[in-house]
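Open question from group meeting: does this chain pack into something compact, or does most of it stay loose? Before anyone orders reagents, we agreed to write out a predicted structure and look at it together. Recording both the input and the output here so the notebook holds the full record.
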Amino acid sequence: MHYSGPIGHGSRSEPKRGAVMREVRAGSDLAVVAAEVLADALAARLRDQPRASLAVSGGRTPWPVFRRLADAAIDWARIDIYQVDERIAASGDPARNLTGLADNLLHQVDVSVLAMPVEAQDLDAAAARYAAELPTAIDVVHLGLGDDGHTASLVPGDPVLDVADRRVAVTQPYKGHRRMTLTFPALNAAGSIIWIVSADGKASALRKVRDGDPSIPAGRVAQTHAVLITDETDAS
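C-alpha cells returned:
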C-alpha cells in the first residue's frame, strides 16, 4: 500500500476518455488510507479558497472511513457536506444514508450539512431545489461501487442515466426504494472524485471502472481527477 499525497483538482463537465485514474490498493488499511486521501483533498482545497464542499455516498463501507475522518485535523467550520444519493424513506430510517453518516461523522464534528430532501411530497421539485443549492462544481465527491456496476444511485437501466440537463434527479425503484441522486453532469464537474471500494465480489465491476467502460454506470464517471482506493489484493 502506498499513498503519495493529494490528487490534483480542477473542474470539468465531460469525461475525458483515455485518462487514467490513480489507484491505491490499501489492503486491510482501507479505512485509514481512504480517510487520509479525503482529508488531504479537502485540505488542498482549503489552502486555495475559504470553504470546501464534500459530497458523500452511502453504504456501510465508508462508515469506518467517516469515523477516522472525524478525527482528522480538518477545519470543519469551513466544510459544507452534501449527499451524493439518498433513499426515499422517513427521517431516522436505517435505510437512509443520512442515518449512517450522522452516526459515524456528523455527530462527532460541527459541520454544515445539506441533506437531500427525500421526505418532500413533490420529489422532482425537491431535487431541483437541491440542485440549485449545490456549488457550481463540488470540490470533493466520494463514490462507492455496487457489484452490478452502479455508483451513487445511478443503476443499470434506470432512465436517470440519460439525464443531461439536471444535476439531481429521482430514480425508479431499486432494491425496494426510489432514490434521489446526483447525475453524471454533477459528478463529472467535480474537482476531485475519490472512489472507496471494498473489492469482495466486485472484480468485474472494478475492471470496468478502471477501463472507463461505459457499459456500467460507474464506468461513465470521469477519471481525470479521480483516485480509486480498494482493499483488493493481487490474489483477489
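Observations to bring back to the group:
The chain has one domain: 37-230.
Strands lie at 22-25, 52-56, 79-83, 85-87, 112-114, 140-143, 168-170, 179-182, 192-197, 226-230.
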